[in-house]
Request: fold
Amino acid sequence: MALVVDGLSTGFLMALLGLSITLVFGLGGVLNLSLGNFAVIAATATAVLLGLSGSLLVAVLGGLLVSCLLGLVVDRSLLSLVYRSSGEQRTLVGIFTMLGLSIVLDGVMYVYYPSQYSIPLDVPSLTVADVTFRGSSLVIIAVSLLLIALLHTFFERTYLGGATQTIMQDETGALVCGISPRRMRTLVFIVSIAIAAIAGILFAASASVSPSSSFRLTIQALIVSIAGGVTSIAGTIFAGLLLGIVSTVAASTIGSSWSSVVLFGVVLGVIFVRPGEIV
Amino acid sequence: MNRDRLSLWAILGLFALSPLLLLTTESIYATRILSLIVIFATLATAMNLVFGHSNQLFFFVGALSGTSSYLCAIALLNYGISPWLTLVPASLLTGAIGMIVSYASARRKFGVVAISIITLTIQLAFRDVLIGAREITGGSTGLAFRGLSLGFLQDALGVDQFFVLYCLLLVLLFAVVGTYRWILSSRYGIALDAIRQDEEVAEYIGIDVLRYKSHVGFAAAFMIGLVGPFYAQLSGFVVPSMYSLASVDIIILVILFVGGLRTTLGPLVGAVGIVYANQTLSSLGQWRSVVFGALLIFLFLYFRRGVVPAARNAVEQRLLSDDRGTSPAD
Reply:
């Protein structure tokens, strides 16, 4: 039972990461290969600020602010250049630009913050009927559920959310309706970075984070997103939960490095046999 | 066309004559740099074939070359089998991996996004297998690698093993470049062009897209597999970090974009510049990867066509303006 809860918490983290990929890809056709870097930067900034200020709230807000500002800079500079091309060309330009950015951010992080960081939450474990649940797992699940509910409200209830969905479905149609795709893309990119940042901070609450974690986080985000169908939000969340449970159960039975091999095997299998279009 | 062929033979001639230069300098450092140039030129040519000509973005060149290298190293250390015997079977295996990925992707009509994610996942899985099976692979410390040398040739010519290795690498490069030219001048070249321009139309006029794509996937992955063990021989060991995304795939992509995608000379010219730059910048440590990441972004945004097509254009422009200058009609 405790294992299932841990699996769910990993699953929610993977779902959040996958969601960030799905949002940006669905809206602009750009595959954010530097997503893991943003998550690691947010977690590192939070851990460093926690050491400086001593207040968890200040640290988390600071970590979010740092990563979102960086995201804004990237959106205004690099992504503006990427969006100048269209269709398949844009996808390709996006892949190489974001890959290059990921290498740059990785290098900078290795130079200035090469060590391992974690964020102690001080949430006590909860014991219900002889089963002990890790405090960090419960916090991860609670925060993720809240975040997903917020996103759902945003997409279904607000004008901006509706506009975003319109662009996802038909870019030209959205333009005709007077929606500016470029502005919405900036908004959604920042939202996706914020989601990745929260996922990174939550990840650092249950494990330690270093610059070398970023590639792995990016890959996890990608596989969740592609297993969920790349453009489907509900599919991404479902895929994240499923893969999270698979990887946690595998890790507890055969060890962590083999568990990721199993995970990758399952994902590759899912990608090749699942019905429906994948870009 | 003739001018292109002339410059191709000139550059290949320079590569072929380079061993003479090494014999006169006898510098181990120069031999090493030149060997790296040839290794990366060969890998970039294979990538040029699979990505440039058939739009299959293989992000696991590191994992493929690493797979054949580790298989050779393990066969030698555990069973005493010479890498000369395991080289081709191991490369056939990596070729098969490339073919399976290409076949399955073409069958499911995956685009460049799906193939890049699949191959990135395999790249990370490869690293995890190396760490997970550390009793066999040595984990992150790696294994010693030797055996891809030709002792009798060293003795007969009175040269050291790295010089012989360099000559072997050159032979491999010429074979790969030759195969690349041969594939593109055959009906494969025409079919690949058609598929790249419009896959559906190509299929409609009767081109077997599945077959062409998976054959190209096999050919490229086989070439990549062949290079790996020679790279290991040059280093004297195999470690996971040698075959990572950052140390193989990124370098190859930068080489391709600098040199020029879909040109025979591009990978050769790009490899000379980039491998040399990579060695010169090695004192920068982590900043080197920052430079390469920035270079990848810059090249792809502003200089996508590369040095070779740009030079070709410049020459043509000049010839055109010369013609105009001497022509009485103007």
In short: Chain B touches chain A at residues 57, 104, 108, 110-114, 116-118, 120-122, 124-125, 128-129, 131-132, 245-246, 250, 253, 285-290, 292-297, 300-301 (CB under 8 Å). The mean pLDDT of chain B is 90.
